[in-house]
Request: fold
Amino acid sequence: MQKINYVLAIETSCDDTSVAIVKEGGWVEALTSASQDTSHAPFGGIVPEIACRNHSINLLPMIEKVLVETKMTWDKIDGIAVTNRPGLIGSLIVGLVTAKTLSQVQQKPYIAINHLEGHLLAPFLKDEKFSPPNDFKYPYVALAISGGHTTIYDIQDFGKYKILGSTLDDAAGEAFDKFGKMLGLGFPGGVKVDKYAQRGDPSKYQFPRSMIKEENLMMSFSGLKSSAQRLVDNLSDEQIREQLFDLCASFQEAICDVLIAKLDRAVQHTSYSRAIITGGVSANSRLRVRAEEWAKKRGITLVIPPIRYCTDNAAMIGYAGLIRLSRGERSSIELGPSPSPYESDFVE
Reply:
């Protein structure tokens, strides 16, 4: 069987275009990503057609960029990894068709990867500035939080992921962005809520913490969003400006309280001593502080990858792809994109 040393990876599941070259062992040789925030900001959210078009413009030059940056030619690349699920169909098509074409032209095997698996494995990535603790290994609990997903997993081993709980409605990232929109902060609102919250009083407003006391690992953020909408509707523009920092801090604290409480319950449920937080919302500064405090108090080995590996990125796809290709797995040329994960992606 062919030894897989280097994988070129492509990630286009939503609005960020990303390409990486990942070496055996999870070393990230090159990573480049292109945000589309300015393209979607005038519309207050992601427009699938715009995302798809921008991917088609950005992708090939970015592939060329990582090859030039690493001074690598195609004869050094042993395989191609690409996201094919879950995500926006149009966006996924751009990446998948590009990967298939390169696979055929360059005579390289390719593997289609579940975007969520990439996030769950992101803590294993390495570069000159980051590497996981030496004792970090399977099994562990994972809290994956983004604009589209808020889920707690039991990571039993590579390829063996069990869903322990998730949000019943809105994802945490969606709640952050919607609150930012309520306050007139623009898109994406979550980053700005975090920024303003750092100067506010998190106890100023009492937002609901739905399901925080329930023994299960399910979450809900729609009630929080509705409560925030009612509050903002009863404030004048001047009051919002005056209380902006406190509003953001209080809203953010409510989400962090729920996430930390459920992560703690998951660790107790599994009896694991290792945990990760991953996905775009794990970039939230308050959540990182709260999580580190919790882990220290509990004696938990906690890994939160650097922001470059938390947001949608091709390095995490490359790592998952490298392992699967090394195991002899290959994807069919007939394989298509999927808006949802496959049932086989998770264990019962």
